[in-house]
Amino acid sequence: MKNIKSKVVILTLALISMFLVGCGDSGCTKKPVIYLYPTSNQTVNVKLDYKGKLTCTYPKYNDGWKVIAHPDGTLINTSDNKEYSYLYWEGVSNHKWDMSKGFVVKGSDTEKFLQEKLQYLGLTPKEYNEFIVYWLPIMQNNKYNLVTFAGEEYNNLAKLNITPKPDSILRVMMVFKPLNKSIKIEEQKLTPFERKGFAVVEWGGTEIK
User: pLDDT for 9-65, tens place per residue?
Assistant: First the structure.
């Protein structure tokens, strides 16, 4: 009986260790969701080249997604013929994020900050509200958050291959780290997004421990 208990304890500790390694200082890429807005109903293939391990996808990735996309963002997944609002994935990697530029935000100011920056970047109210609903509970109780929006760095980590090719793509990856006190950092310059033709929009976040 003692041997069985010892094995259970060892296995539990091993699983905890695996989780901590997977989501340690590099963080976990949480809830990236991909919206597709074609100009007319069309079949779209989406492949993700992620330098890490996918931990969850919805609908199931199956070496790629194939959907019938509608101009209003509605997606019909061809593998199960069911309706979806977006393509969802999460993953873990050993990537070390560059946080040399960004914003230091009080936890209590998180809602206002996200509304302002996400709207400026080009998310619609529907998109940025879904973003905020997910991340606000995680960030608002921290004293401060160091926040940066990864651009080319994120594109290199998680490349999207979409057919037919979109006319415009916005990928918002927020990387943040909780802080006990405010620090000085060079403010990041953001560029607003202009939607043209077949537009693809993605948002997600990574918390650095």
Answer: 333 333 323 333 335 455 677 779 999 999 999 999 999 999 999 999 999 998 999
Q: What is the pLDDT of residues 64-83, one digit of tens each?
A: 999 999 999 999 999 999 99
Gyration radius of the chain's alpha carbons: 19
Among 59, 74, 39, 40, smallest CA distance to 168 is for 39
Q: Look up the pTM and report it.
A: 0.86
Mean per-residue pLDDT for 116-133?
Answer: 97
Phi, psi torsion values for 143, nearest 5 degrees: -60, -50
- 47 backbone dihedrals φ, ψ, rounded to 5°: -125, 145
d(CA 53, CA 28): 10
Handedness of CA 61, 67, 71, 73 (dihedral sign): negative
How far is 141 from 207, CA to CA, in rounded Å? 14
Contact 145, 177 (CB under 8 A): yes
Q: How many CB atoms lie within 10 A of CB 34?
A: 21
Q: Using alpha carbons, list the distances in angstroms from residue 117 to 38, 67, 158, 174, 185.
A: 25, 30, 22, 11, 17
Question: CA triplet 115, 84, 40: central angle to 5 degrees?
Answer: 90
How far apart, in whole angstroms, are the C-alpha atoms of residue 95 and residue 156? 11
